[in-house]
Amino acid sequence: MSTRGSAAPAREGNVDNNARRTNLFDLTQDFDLLFDAVEQDWQEQALCAQTDPEAFFPEKGGSTREAKRICQACQVRDECLEFALEHDERFGIWGGLSERERRRLKKRLG
């Protein structure tokens, strides 16, 4: 009888822990889905999404003037630059900055 009594609380504890893990896992998945939706939202609003992508990925030595002009008027420029810095984008104009300009900015930010 004492064996049964000691086994029951352990089982209940395991159920509670498993439920907590499941809830935490579900919460993490929900957060990831929300984050992805927000991330995609700014990309859909970006002016570059409505423009010729070649302007944002010029050949080496090519002009970046047109892409930077478009970025200046873009309402999601900050989000774009933040994305590029976080994901270490090495090519193209992001948030109005070239790869070299983003590297310099990253160094200054530490």
UniProtKB/TrEMBL annotation:
InterPro entries: 4FE4S_WBL, Whib. Binds 1 [4Fe-4S] cluster per subunit. Following nitrosylation of the [4Fe-4S] cluster binds 1 [4Fe-8(NO)] cluster per subunit. Its cofactor is [4Fe-4S] cluster. [4Fe-4S] cluster binds at C48, C71, C74, C80. Upon Fe-S cluster removal intramolecular disulfide bonds are formed. The Fe-S cluster can be nitrosylated by nitric oxide (NO). One of its GO terms (molecular function) is 4 iron, 4 sulfur cluster binding. Pfam families: Whib (PF02467). Keywords: 4Fe-4S, Cytoplasm, Disulfide bond, DNA-binding, Iron, Iron-sulfur, Metal-binding, Transcription, Transcription regulation. This is Transcriptional regulator WhiB. It comes from Corynebacterium falsenii. The lineage of its organism: Bacteria, Bacillati, Actinomycetota, Actinomycetes, Mycobacteriales.
